[in-house]
Design a protein that fits this description.
Distance between the termini: 23 Å
Number of helices: 3
Order of helices and strands: HEEEEEEHEEHE
Helix content: 10-25%
CATH class of the domain at 45-139: Alpha Beta
Structural class: alpha+beta
Largest sheet: 3 strands, mixed
Oligomer: single chain
Number of strands: 9
Radius of gyration: 17 Å
CATH architecture of the domain at 45-139: 2-Layer Sandwich
Strand order of the largest sheet: 7-8-9
CATH superfamily of the domain at 45-139: ANL, C-terminal domain
Strand content: 25-35%
CATH topology of the domain at 45-139: GMP Synthetase, Chain A, domain 3
Length: about 140
């Protein structure tokens, strides 16, 4: 809620959209397991819609973080002419890693559904971060 502090217009707009039937809709996406435990899995505003399929960036990020060459990654949706959006991975490689964009995409393809793996991979030296270490995805688009 810090982003709305001393911003009455933004607060009014967010409140009008977020409160429905007495519930505050934060935009968090969650799942509940068979024991009734809830897990936050992503944010609805980060959802990528590729060819009519929903892709949760966090799921793709978690898979890519398992690759030995990946130090940090952010997954975003970028415009695509026929699919609406395409999955893009912005990757910080570990020092000395010789992995290629094609190799990383192929590795992810083996571990994710066909519509989820990133077709676009970009290597960067660092990702933009907030003072608390959160990745600023809006600066990557």
């Amino acid at each position: 809620m810090k982003g709305y502090y001393k911003r009455p217009e933004a607060t009014a707009e967010a409140t009008a959209e977020a409160i429905r039937e007495g519930w505050f809709r934060s935009g968090d996406l969650a799942r509940k397991d068979e024991d009734g435990f809830c897990y936050i899995v992503d944010r609805s505003k980060d959802m990528i819609i590729r060819g009519g399929f929903n892709v949760c960036p966090r799921e793709v990020e978690e898979v890519l973080m398992e690759h030995s060459a990946v130090s940090l990654v952010a997954v975003i949706g970028v415009p695509h002419e026929s699919h609406g959006q395409e999955v893009k991975a912005v990757v910080v490689k570990k020092a000395g890693s010789g992995t290629t964009k094609e190799e990383l995409a192929a590795w992810a393809k083996e571990r994710l559904a066909a519509y989820k793996y990133p077709r676009v991979v970009q290597f960067v030296d660092e990702l933009p971060l907030t003072s608390t270490g959160k990745i600023l995805k809006r600066e990557l688009a």
